[in-house]
Every structure is written in C-alpha cells, then in structure tokens.
Amino acid sequence: MGRGPYTDVPVATLPIACRRRFSVLDVQRQASEADPLSDSSIPTVGFKPQLQSFVCRSKRTKPSINLSCRRSLYVRDRTTQPARPSATSSLTRLSLRQTVRVKRELKGITMKKRLCLYQPFLGVLTASMLLMVSVAVRSETYIVLYQSNAVPANAAATISAAGGTLLWGYSEIGVAIAQSNNASFANTVKAAAGVLGAAATTGLGVRLDESFTAVDAADASTVAPTLGTPAPDNDTLSGLQWDMLQISAPQAHAVNGGDPSIVVGDIDTGLDFMHPDLAANVDFANSVSCIGGVPNPSPAAWNDDNGHGTHTAGTIAAAKNGIGIVGVAPNVRIAGIKAGDTAGFFFPEAVVCAFMWAGTHHIQVTNNSYFADPWLFNCRNDPGQRAIWEAERRAIRFAQQRGTVVVAAEGNEADDLAHPTMDITSPDNTTPVPREITNACAVVPVEIPGVIGVTANGNKLLKSFYSSYGMGTVQVIAPGGDSVLQRTPAAPNGRVLSTFPAALIGNCRRQVIDPSGATYCYLQGTSMASPHVAGVAALIASTGVTSPGAIAAKITNTADPLDCPADLSIYAFFPSVSNGKPQMCQGAVGYNGFNGHGQVNALTAVTR
Fold first, then answer.
1. What's the N-to-C CA distance of the chain in angstroms?
2. 3-class secondary structure, 301
3. DSSP alpha helix (H) spans, 91-205
C-alpha cells in the first residue's frame, strides 16, 4: 500500500474515525519537513479540526495530549450501550492524570498501532479502578413515522401509552420526535393505528429514496429580489483566498455581491455570530439549534461550539468590510442552523428539524457539509433504518418543494459513490462493523435527488486526493483544498482559509489573525468545497432566479468543464476508504465522475 508523501505512515491505513468527520480531512507533513504554515513540532499523520482536536498519532511518536483532549476523554462501562456522549448517558469525564492511570490499569487491552487520542471508548472498567461508573437506563430519542403526512391529534397520548414522551411534531410530513427509556417503546408504538414505523436515532442513520425526483413548487416569494450590490475584493486577507480567484468570485462581486433579501441556511455546527467578518450578515430571526430534534432559536443554543460551522459560513457570506476575507456572496444573509453537536455528530432528528426549519422559514439555499450519522451509507432495505430514512426523505422533499436549494458535500472517503460495495466506517459513533452494500445504500444528503453534489479540487484544478466522487452523484466541483498533490505558490499549504471562532482558535493548527484581531483558520475537505457552490447559488438567487431547479441548472450550465486527469496513478496512495479500490474517473470533459459538469464559476453564473 502506498505512502502519502507528507505522512509518516500509510495514509490509507489511518484509523477510520480519524479520516472523516464533516467531510474534512487534513494530512500533516513529516515533522522533519519545513512548513511555515504547519505545526511541525507535532508529528501527526491526521487531524480532525473540531473541538476535540481529534489527533491520530503513530505509536512510535511521543503522544502528547493537548488541552482540548483533556476535556474530551471518556470511559464507558462494559454494560452501557455505546452511544454518543450526552447528559443522560453513563459516562464520566476524566482528567488527564486520571486517564493515564486508568489506561495503565486496563488489563488485557491491546493498544492499536496508531492511536486516536480522542477515544470514545478507552477500555473496560474493572473493580480495582479508582473511578467507578454508575450504570443507568438511558433515554433514547426516537423518530415516529406516520402513514399520512400529518401527526394526529392523539400522538402525545399514543406515545405516552407506549412509554414515551412527545418532544415535537412535524405535522407537514407526518413525523414526531419522541423520547423514551422503555426498551420496547419502538415495537409498542409501531402497533398503534396510523404509525408506519419507529426507530431510535442513536444507532441509525437515514437514506432518502433514490426514486424521488424533486419537483419545484411555487416560489416562496413572488417578489423578485433586486440586483445585488457590487463588492470588489480588497479586504486584508483577500490575497490569501486562492479559492475565490479560482472561481472568479472577485470579478463576480464587481457585478453582483448578493442581495440581503437572500438567506443561506448553513446546516452545520452553528456559527459564531460575534465574529467580526460575519456579524453584519447574520440573520438572527432565521437561525436555530435543532439538536435533539426540537427547534431552539436562542442564540446561545445555535452558537458554534465546534468551529466547523463558522468556517463554512465565512466561505459563503463573510462580509466585504475591510477586514479579513470576503465570502462568495458577501451581501446575503447567513442563518446558522445547528444540526451538528459539539462532537460533530449530525443525527437524524436534528437533520429532519433543520430541513423543516429551512422550508418553513423561506430559506432560499442550504449548505450541507456533513453526512447524517452514524451510517455513512444508509440502506432503505434495512428494517431498522427504514423509518428514519423515510422521515429524512420527507423533510428534504418538503424543503425543496418550498423553494430551498440544497447543496451538499460529496465526502472524504475517496469512494466511488456510484458503485458502493463495502462500508467499513459505520456506525461511526461506536465500533465500525464491515458490511456489504449495494446501490440500495447511499450517502445522505448528497445522493438525494435534487441535491447539488459537490466534489473538491485544489489549486491545480485536479480532484482532491480525498474527495469522494461518482457518476450521477456529483454536479460540480469547487475548491476544497489539497495539501498533498496541489500545493502552489498561491496555495502554499493547499488549504482553504475562512473564519473561525476566537474562543476555539486554539483548536486550529494553521491560524491566521487579522490585524483587527479577527480569527481565521486553514482547513481542507469537501466541507470547504460545498459552501463555495452554496454561495454561487445565493448570487444566482440575487439576480431574481428563485426556482431551485432553475438555480441548479444555472450552476451546472455555467460551470467550466474539466476532463478526467490524464494520469490517475497520482491517487494510488489513497484508495477508497470503504473497499480499498483505486480511484477511477469515468466520463468525458462535458461530464465525468470527478468533476461533474465542471468547476463552478461565480462570474458566468451572474452574467450569462
């Protein structure tokens, strides 16, 4: 198996959890290589840019645990069901010293060759350990799916009779969010009249029906927005934005910088509404937290406690204000729709809530730089996943029919999504279990009909080494960065610069501080590519085109065609994460599995 030129172990052998999250992937150079924009004192081979500062290290390197890891180490009792950390789970936080002590007392535990310093599971506790973990019955969150697109008036009573509590009902699509600590709740409530299915969301992901074709409904607003205000780019860090130059964003801004009547919903981990480059464009009225499946409009609830959402928001709509960077659509409004928790998990109840919020709040564009956890590939023929799969299908269809354009990242597994055969990375919130899959399984939300799928490229106009791809799943490609194959004088570290919360800037390894004190971070991934396309969609909407289908057509018809690479051997060091197959590009210059219809072009999108 090949080695990446900037890693000290084979990249393809990294622990799976370290290779993906939010569609962000980062590969670090060897510590011995000089890199002024890298933290070369830490010889890491992978990096998870989020609150936990998820770092994978080779065992032969000295494992130093940074401060953010101290807050993120958990020990779980053998009898506790594996689950994401929550206030109701039987988990105990340990200090760094306690963690080391517990590790030493774990008997018979073989440490992995490559260690992820953020471990949701460190081992099995024994009676001799200093710290005891109490075992409690955990409350589970459930999605209850009704046969009709309505939640009946007796839903609360039915759910209560089954041993649960109704948290929220989405009557427009016939979906209820419930909570119960009764292990038989799902089977009991499914027996009630009118209930099509029910499933706990802790261990299940969602996939939408591939046969569904989005039909544009009447425009949410009959009043066409005015043309956007020109916004030439000359902010203090604009010279570092190779990605904006690559899609002709500065030239587009001279014609149309977007209109404030257009709102982009960034379905992510929230956003830092106090960031100086975002504050002027934040739409407080249309921002919300959907964690737990229940909308909470309090700014404290949807504030970004991870950093990922603030980064994607800046690419979309960082203001033209003389400081920092300029987003693709600097004059539009940005709404933070928080569906990802602190740990970066996007679970079905939050995703359903997010699309319902977008559809009911006349949000014209959503960006989706994630997949619905915990399953990377979600299978509609799985009896346990079917109810949740249908619930998300209904929610996304609802938003699309209300006039919302849905843009989504393709993913970072170097997988051919058109020909899936194995899923070895799911569920990603517990221990992955390899399973064979077919085209009956797909990635949510990027493979949903009507969704604009986006792959990532770098500054040499090649598909990024990590980006997933596939005929029929990708519509366009956009800058996401490539730190291995595509470092250039314009992109010396290969990554994309955008806004980052000041409170979390310590978790960013490639920081940039504007003279004003505003904080920015370099990251790479299809997470960074998708918001470029969402920003272009907002610019198109600012010209008066409001139908989601018409906006999607304009994006693809004005893209710059790119052919498959002449030499695919450059990707040999990074085969598919899921099945180990080499990356293959099918198609021609007009459309292919790597680039779709081509690289998105902001200028032609607003002038042609």
1. 46
2. helix
3. 96-105, 155-161, 185-190
- CA 459/CA 454 separation, integer angstroms: 16
CA dist., res. 499 & res. 315, Å (int): 8
Structure tokens given for 180? 């119960």
Predicted model pTM: 0.74
Contact yes or no for 5/508 (Cβ under 8 A)? no
Q: How far apart are CA 211 and CA 291, in angstroms?
A: 29
**Whole-number Cα distances in Å, 286 to 265, 282, 336:** 8, 9, 8
95 has pLDDT over 70: no
Structure tokens at 193: 């009249």
For the record, the structure tokens of 345 come out as 């998990």
Residue whose C-alpha is closest to residue 444's, from 354, 558, 528, 521: 354
Percent of the chain with pLDDT over 70: 66
pLDDT on residue 128: 34
Expressed in percent and rounded to 5, the helix, strand and coil fractions of the chain are 25, 20, 60
For residues 507 and 434, which has the higher predicted lDDT (pLDDT)? 507
Q: Backbone phi, then psi, for 428, in 5-degree steps?
A: -85, 0
Q: Write the DSSP assignment of 46-92 as a string of letters.
A: EEE-STT-EEEEETTS--PPPHHHHTT-EEE-TTSPP----TTSSEE
Average pLDDT over residues 25-49: 32
- Judged on CB neighbours under 10 Å (0-12, 13-18, 19+), 104 is exposed
CA atoms within 13 A on the CB side of 308: 36
- pLDDT, tens only, 125-138: 333 333 333 334 57
Segments in 178-290 forming alpha helices (H) = 185-190, 242-246, 249-253
Which pLDDT band holds residue 393 (cuts at 50, 70, 90)?
A: confident
Q: What is the pLDDT of residue 440?
A: 52
3-state secondary structure 521-572: EEECEHHHHHHHHHHHHHHHHHCCCCCHHHHHHHHHHCCECCCCCCCHHHHC
Cα–Cα distance measured from residue 425 to residue 447, given in angstroms and rounded to the nearest whole number: 18
The pLDDT tens digits for 337-368 are 999 999 888 888 999 999 999 999 999 999 99
Q: What DSSP character marks residue 592? A: B
The reported pLDDT for the residue numbered 462 is 98
Two tokens, residue 492: 């010396």
Mean pLDDT of 168-197: 95
Structural domains in the chain, sorted by start: 140-200 (3.30.70), 238-607 (3.40.50.200)
Q: Which helix (H) or strand (E) holds 114?
A: strand 114-116
- Please give the share of the chain, as a percent, with pLDDT higher than 90: 59
DSSP codes joined into one string, 336-393: EEE-B-TT--B-HHHHHHHHHHHHHTT--EEEE-S--SS-SSEETT-TTTHHHHHHHH
Q: Which residue type is seen at 536?
A: V
What is the model's pLDDT at position 388?
Answer: 79
